[in-house]
Amino acid sequence: MTGGLEVVRAGALTTVQDQGRGGWAHLGVGRAGALDAPAYRLANRLVGNAESAAALETTVTGCAVRAVATGGFVVAVVGGAVCRVTVDGRAAAWGAPVRVPEGAVLEAGPAVSGLRSYLAFAGGVAVDPVLGSRSADLLSGLGPAPLREGDVLPLGRPGRSCPPVPDAVPWPGAAPAGLVLPVRPGPRHTWFTQTALRTLTTAVYRVSDRSNRIGLRLDGPALERARGDELPSEGVVLGAVQVPADGRPVVFLNDHPTTGGYPVIGVVPERALAGAARVGPGADVRFVLG
Amino acid sequence: MSTPAFSVLRMLPVGTDALLVECASGEQAEALYAELLRRRADGELPAVRDMVPAARTVLLDGITYPGGGPGPQRFAADIASWRVPELRRAPGDEVEIPVVYDGPDLADVAEAWGVEVAEVARTHAETAFRVAFCGFAPGFGYLTGLPEHLRVPRRATPRTRVGAGAVALAGPYTGVYPRDSPGGWQLIGRMPEPGTLWDPAREPAALLVPGTRVRFVPVPVPPGARR
Prior knowledge:
heterodimer, A: about 290 residues, mainly beta, Cyclophilin, nine-stranded antiparallel β-sheet, B: Gyrase A, domain 2, 2 domains, four-stranded antiparallel β-sheet, about 20% helix, elongated, PxpC (chain A)
């Protein structure tokens, strides 16, 4: 046993995430993984982990964990969404390594800016992997369940030496006031009217409170279809902009279904999706061709 | 004698590194998927993270050629030159799934088929099925094999809970629910021990992987196990 974390406050939705699992879509298993990949990777680097180590991803309200059986202390970093960080109630650094002594509680407060904070720990969260990944997939139910108070998560053995840490590092993307997502025409863009295609790249959409790890659901003008027939189920990619029956676009995020029966009007490149992980309900979203 | 072969219908780029290949029928999509698996095993394909067969398409996601470049366009040009052999129905291993035919929608299905209730189980168990593709949930296979005239619609109102192991029909497909979930398909029976459908510790994790031949075997109601 190299120590663990006891969940003191689970928060609205806190999950274990790593880089996700690829190569299983033909079995109905999606990719999952940290939504804000750059923030997740940086948090890992700052505690001396491989970029693929599992970390905690919070949603809006943060979380609190107690270091148990660490034999001294554990090094942690809270990054991603900006929030107040405390160790046993005392203010600690956000976005930089902090020492959490044995028995102390590390708390990531509610997000002040952004939506999802990442808590990385030296050694990584060492729950059992499923199909090569420790990520929770909320659509398929694979991987560890969302954290609940009282859960104890094992930690891995920290690397022998932490890399030297610079005094300050630039964290990716503070939450933009309005999100601009580049989009390319999707495989079924011809299923939509010319007006719909123009609307997609000119209208201002708003993030719906029904958004989650499966998709960024948007409120705004409906996108009208040029044909009414049903689309037989087909494979869909991360970043696909699918248009369900109500005409409001959904940008598929990491826990998206592997196949879908609604036409995909556009595709947002994977590198642009971290921005979608940082905006909450009510935020403005625009699409630009590119 | 030449082997019957076909060309794909169209190729649709999906973002920067994926390609959706569309076929004229589900049968041809299954044949294309089999051909892709064969060529991948023979080392003839570029790196592709996911190959996802579906009703009439195969999605190729995460295409990378050594040295980079526009993967989907290059792969599309390659596939356009293929003559895909039709799916061979070689006899081989078959997965047998035991079923208690006592589903709540048996009578509705019998009426739609215009037969007695007992005939539904008989017909279903006599049909040679094949897993066309997976989706909906890990380990849920869409099985084809029922003739066109036996297609049934989904239920008008989906159930909020369908038990693990439920054997169901919708459209051209038969499926077995690997775990409890909501569902809109017509339930005709249940697999007594559905745990084998999905086991992440096994390779492959799914019992019903695309291309698998499947036969349903009627079994009596286990004593005391009636739900």
